[in-house]
Amino acid sequence: MKAHELTSTLSEIPYRRGSYLSEERKNLLLDVRTQVQIIEQQVSLERGHGLGPAKKDRLIQPCRKSSVTLRENLGTIKGRLDVGGKQ
Q1: Domain ranges of the chain
Q2: Given this model, what pLDDT does residue 23 score?
Q3: Strand, helix or coil at 47?
Q4: Is 52 exposed, middle or buried (0-12, 13-18, 19+ CB in 10 A)?
Q5: What is the pTM of this model?
Q6: I need a surface site. Which of 18, 25, 62, 82 has the fewest CB within 10 A?
Q7: H or E, element range at 46
Q8: pLDDT at residue 19 above 80?
Q9: How far is residue 21's CA from residue 55's CA, in Å, rounded to a whole number?
């Protein structure tokens, strides 16, 4: 359920706050959304069976990368809001 909420938010941010982001950053957010959707599907398939250590490791790596991308974009948006400017 949380992954679904996250993918919904990732679909919205590039359009709601797009004036604060470059086209490249908007595309990165949409790429992260796709990664989260894939992870959500994989976790759903394993529900009730448990994820083995190797599968967990494979899922954790894109999660970490996605987290960094999200924080960078949030920082960009907040920074531009703080100074009241747009790109």
Answers
A1: 2-83
A2: 92
A3: coil
A4: exposed
A5: 0.71
A6: 82
A7: helix 23-46
A8: yes
A9: 34
